[in-house]
UniProtKB/TrEMBL annotation:
Gene3D superfamilies: 1.25.40.390. Belongs to the SusD family. PROSITE patterns: PROKAR_LIPOPROTEIN. It comes from the Bacteria. One of its GO terms (cellular component) is cell outer membrane. This is RagB/SusD family nutrient uptake outer membrane protein. The keyword Membrane applies. Residues 368-639 form the RagB/SusD domain. Transmembrane segments: none annotated. Keywords: Cell outer membrane, Membrane, Signal. InterPro entries: SusD-like_N, SusD_RagB_dom, TPR-like_helical_dom_sf. It is found in: Cell outer membrane.
Length: 639
């Protein structure tokens, strides 16, 4: 137990920020017993925070399969051992996954994955001993129990999304358990879903509607968070991967019990709809609203409308949680969210000389092409946009100067795109408002062609292999020049816009008319500076009636979701549950010819990765060693 608390102290110390100061008040060494851990309120609160510890690790995008295996970002695979990013998660799309040694192994806590079953044991220990502190008030006790029940539900959900049917870990096994008791079985998908929902239903009533003491408690679970996660769980359960998936119809355990239902159940969408409505209502009733950029006193008054729109979108996740009305749930930042510098190009001579920012989270051309035109429809559909000539070269004019540097030669694909493209993606010639320069008429811009440019490749390590950066994951106030000055932000887990898109999806799957579905899409699109779905498709699409069919509207919703939630570790999970990730990964991931300086040579797509993804990759393999130790476990299909 001594080593346990020492280990806990190290974890907590690494993850603590200003809003979780109490994380540091852990039990001293040499007294690591359960009785001591729950001898009074303060010690019990320390143990409560240890239940949150694994959750805090989820903020690192390189450990999130929804980020690393989504096709949104690629990462060079030639980094040396002294680099701080573990590339395991990124390399999975290269076909490195195996049942002998799984990457992002959240079952065992190996290869970039967190030990979630260990986290569940801590949660169960907390619930088993919550009655021991005699100075714990009834209100605090009820809230803490609810927080731990939420954490148990979410930890199960994380495993569920990766492995499907999992052993429900409701209680800790006694220390004198018999071998047959320890050899647990996997529970069917529907049983796991019902268990998670039951925990959330039990937790929600005693959770606060909002965090009042934000200095000490921001990041702890609230009722809106619990209801939003419930909506996410039930939508996931209703989705094609888990609802009547024929690929898993014959998947059974050692006793012949089906682990997936082979029959599609439309009522699962009804449960998801009710959960979405409840989550949206409680959020809106408690002041949540789509984010609006509020310039500080240091921002010049001459911001143009186009730049205001870009900043409104760019700050949607990077504004302080305390004042951001859209963030339902986010995680405390470590070192300025953790990975801003991996999404930031070098913009100045000093930055190019110092090489602090790696800039290695590279956005493929295919992800860039996902964004709409300025008319709010896909680039493949807009009848006014030159799709076939998009790789030609064009010189930016003065009218383009708030998006693309005036007089700069860049590819035609960068012109006349929607505001989220300019807010989310940095590219050669693209304007970068911020980094210490806040004059909209004198902004920095990305110069990425060839090794002689500021942002271009300097060696085989500090390079962006595609020529696109995830600008969305950098606070515009973060400065990289002679050194790095981070402006922290909380990594988003759930935003109100995501909840609107979730509800639009559910309504469409219920078979509701487009008139009922579209308003929730249009709320998100209006904030993005786009016309509504009906107007955009009617006036600009080559398929003007697309939104009138369920399948056409489904395509619109899915693309809207992938754009709005890009780089947040959300769209990748959505692609999995939709069973669309295999189609995305069937195409090569490409970037520009980054070592060339002339535009005509630079703007030639080159294949970086031919992804390896097939049906079996929708679920993670359980490590083979576990199947040997526990004969009751069965492996996921085709592993």
């Amino acid at each position: 137990m001594k080593s346990y608390y020492k280990y806990l102290y190290m974890i907590v110390l690494a993850m603590t920020t200003m809003s979780c100061k109490k994380y540091l008040d852990v039990t001293p060494e040499n007294v690591g017993t359960i009785d001591y851990a729950f001898r009074n309120r303060n010690e019990a609160e320390n143990y409560l925070f240890s239940c949150y510890a694994t959750l805090q690790q989820f903020q690192y995008p390189q450990q999130n399969a929804g980020f690393t295996t989504s096709g949104e970002v690629v990462f060079p695979n030639n980094l040396t051992d002294n680099q701080s990013i573990e590339p395991t998660g990124f390399n999975l799309i290269r076909g490195t996954q195996s049942a002998a040694n799984p990457g992002l192994n959240f079952w065992d806590g190996e290869n970039g994955g967190q030990a979630i079953f260990r986290a569940l044991r801590r949660c169960n220990t907390m619930l088993e001993n919550i009655d021991k502190p005699i100075d714990l008030t009834p209100g605090e006790k009820a809230r803490w129990i609810s927080e731990v029940k939420f954490l148990k539900a979410y930890y199960h959900f994380y495993l569920f999304r990766m492995y499907g049917p999992i052993p429900i870990t409701d209680v800790n096994l006694p220390i004198n358990s018999q071998p047959q008791d320890v050899k647990v079985k996997r529970d069917p998908v529907d049983s796991v879903v019902n268990y998670m929902v039951r925990l959330l239903d039990q937790a929600a009533p005693d959770l606060p509607l909002a965090i009042q003491n934000q200095t000490q408690e921001l990041g702890r679970i609230t009722r809106p968070i619990a209801l939003a996660v419930k909506a996410d769980i039930l939508t996931t359960a209703a989705s094609p991967l888990f609802n009547g998936n024929p690929a898993y119809a014959s998947f059974v355990d050692k006793d012949g019990q089906n682990l997936f239902s082979g029959t599609y159940d439309a009522t699962k969408w009804d449960r998801a709809a009710a959960a979405c409505v409840a989550a949206i209502q409680i959020c809106e009733a408690n002041g949540y609203a789509l984010h609006t950029f509020n310039p500080s006193a240091s921002i010049p008054a001459n911001l143009t409308d186009s730049l205001k729109t870009v900043l409104n979108l760019q700050t949607t996740i990077t504004d302080k949680w305390e004042t951001n009305t859209e963030l339902i749930w986010a995680l405390n930042p470590v070192f300025g969210f953790g990975r801003q510098e991996y999404n930031m190009p070098r913009l100045t001579p000093d930055a190019a000389a110092n090489l602090i920012a790696q800039g290695t989270f590279a956005v493929p051309i295919g992800q860039q092409e996902l964004y709409y035109t300025h008319n709010g429809v896909p680039i493949t559909e807009d009848k006014t946009w030159d799709y076939t000539g998009r790789y030609g070269i064009k010189t930016a004019l003065e009218k383009d100067r708030f998006y693309i540097h005036n007089g700069y030669e860049t590819v035609k694909a960068h012109f006349d795109r929607e505001p989220r493209f300019y807010a989310n993606v940095a590219f050669d010639g693209g304007v970068w408002y911020g980094n210490g320069k806040l004059d909209p008429e004198n902004t920095l811009y990305v110069q990425a062609r060839g090794s002689g440019s500021y942002a271009g490749p300097k060696d085989n390590i500090r390079l962006n292999v595609t020529g696109y950066w995830a600008k969305k994951l950098v606070n515009y106030l973060t400065i990289y020049d002679k050194s790095m000055t981070w402006e922290n932000f909380h990594y988003p887990m759930m935003r109100l816009s995501g909840l609107y898109l979730l509800y639009a999806e559910v309504l469409n799957e219920q078979g509701k008319s487009y008139a009922e579905v579209v308003p929730y899409l249009d709320r998100v699109r209006a904030r993005a500076g786009l016309p509504g779905v009906v107007a955009a498709w009617t006036n600009f699409s080559r398929n003007p009636a697309k939104y009138t069919s369920q399948d056409g509207l489904r395509q619109i919703i899915h693309q809207e979701t992938r754009i709005e939630l890009a780089f947040e570790g959300q769209a990748g999970w959505a692609l999995r549950r939709w069973k669309e990730l295999q189609a995305v990964m069937s195409r090569p991931l490409q970037g520009w010819n980054i070592y060339e300086e002339a535009p005509i040579n630079y703007y030639r797509p080159r294949t970086l990765i031919s992804p390896v993804f097939n049906e079996r990759n929708y679920l993670w393999p359980i490590k083979n060693d576990n199947l040997i130790i526990n004969g009751n476990l069965v492996q996921n299909p085709n592993w």
